[in-house]
Amino acid sequence: MRTRSYSMRSMGIRKFLYILPFMIMLGVFAYYPLYGWVYAFFDYMPPIPLSKSPFVGFKWFHSLVENQVKVDQLLVIIKNTFGMSGLNLLFSWLPMIFAIFLTEIKAVRFRKFIQTVTTLPNFISWVLVYSLAFSMFSSEGIVNGLLKQLGVIDSPIMFLQSSEHVWLTMWLWTTWKVLGWSAILYIAAIMGIDDSLYEAAHVDGATRMQVIRHVVLPSMLPTYFVLLMLQIASFLNNGLEQYFVFQNAFNKDSIQVLDLYVYNLAMGGGSYSVSVAISMLKSVISVVLLFSVNGLSKLTRGESIV
Amino acid sequence: MSDNAAELAPHEPERRSRLDKKMKFQVSTADKWITVLIYTLFSLFAFVCVYPFYSIIINTISANDLSARGEIVFYPKHIHFQNYLDVFKIPGLGHAALVSLGRTLIGTSLTVGTSAFLGFMFTQEDMWKRKFWYRFTVITMFFNAGIIPWYLTMKSLHLTNNFLAYILPMMVAPFYIILVKTFVESTPKELQQAASIDGAGVMTLFFKIMLPISKPILATVAIFAAVDQWNSFQDTLLLVTDSNLYSLQFILYNYINQASSLSTMVNLQNAGSTAMASLATKQTTTSIRMTVTIIVVAPILLVYPIFQRFFVKGIMIGAVKG
Hints:
The complex is a heterodimer.
Chain A: H1 2-31, H2 59-63, H3 68-90, H4 94-104, H5 108-119, H6 126-137, H7 142-149, H8 166-191, H9 195-203, H10 208-233, H11 241-246, H12 252-255, H13 258-268, H14 272-301
Helix pairs in contact in A: 3-8, 4-8, 5-8, 8-10, 10-14, 13-14
Chain B: H1 4-8, H2 12-23, H3 29-60, H4 64-68, H5 82-86, H6 93-121, H7 130-138, H8 147-156, H9 164-167, H10 174-186, H11 189-197, H12 202-213, H13 215-231, H14 234-239, H15 248-272, H16 285-321
């Protein structure tokens, strides 16, 4: 008996040893970067290594709010972040509606075609999206060319180099890219609806809109709720790529979200320590948000999302 | 494009019968208008999704002077393929294509292998502290230190200007591990038990039993990972200053901002050759930019319709678990 349990245990250890190298890699690439947060507490000026940099405590955190100019600057960034994330959150129901109406299409081939075509943009990079945008909307782009030929305009409209409506255009590009793809989960939810519910609605003489309202919509709400919570949890994480590729001298003030600002500060301005300080605050707030929505989910639905 | 709906709806016949049932719902005039509206809106959105790709393709094969003036809108004019020969005269483009291809092939193989192995190992209930290590892996999906701390630590590991920086950080990917683990759990346990009784070790189990039957999910992981690798831009932006390691995405980004000088250069090269480039094949800022765009997007456009069902399957399994 003793030898048996011993050999079971050693088997378990051996299996662990097989995955150990990969756990170390995960440690290095996912956990070790957290150590990078120490840069926020030093006056790090490359090429002087961290070990020779002076320790400055919370200086960089204080510096974020030390005078009105800096506070205003940070407020602009926060406003942009809230604006862009807010728009995405405000329209988070769009994929659901997209899915509802797509499944209402009865011509199967047409439906498949629409689905294939509208999910395509999700699989190209933001650089490619920008390149398409540039070809379409730059001053010598196709849209301006067409408008000129039609005699609508004399001089090209500067769609991309404008500081107007940046939040809206960024939201439109995001929607263009991900709408079809985000709808897939909802389509799956609709496909999973029990046939008997439809039959019951039919027996009750429900109209099409009533079926959507009372049968389809309720069955999608759990999915919507989970995705909404996750979206709230990543409210501060707009990502860098989209805003980086679309930024230029004209729209800089309205396009800089936290992720881009942090990048510009460090890679453009060399202020690594300040930017790490902001990153750190951002990550901490994100984790707090994640736990909050998770708690909220447990409270209201009795189920956690992570 | 052919059978993706079958993947989406495993019970397509049922679905159809349900649609038939739905047909019997009272059809009012309002309903008819709704139908018309739905078809119109979806057609419009589909057009908006496809047209940018289409228009750039027809522009790259049309006379360059016309396309530079934005005159190619619906169909190509004076078709020629000189642009596709000329862009490879830009130094660095061919090399960047190799870098992108290399990171996609090597990175994808390693990511798939790792995901397969870890996904399988995490189903081994007798593994020491299995639950802990699984959580240790999955939780990394929900936090990150931020790009600058990440950059600084990568730098301290000498992974800047290093090809390995394209491969190693993407190897252990929690999402794909979840996909494989879910799949392995759905296969009959008896398979593994029978093999164990026959004396197969855990590695034999993995290579001889699990790898062959996991092929469908591994294909899904492979296609996701390949698209990730091919599209990756941020890591080059942050970690690479050596132009020998520039990827196609990065080079495309640079070209968008500086295509005019490149077109001049290609034209100078062509001027030296016997045939003077005519206006229609002379490189312009627009022609260079668009042609490179098509080269970068081509693999996605080619692969996507064939593998669309794999993407759909992947996201579904991921959603059920996540």
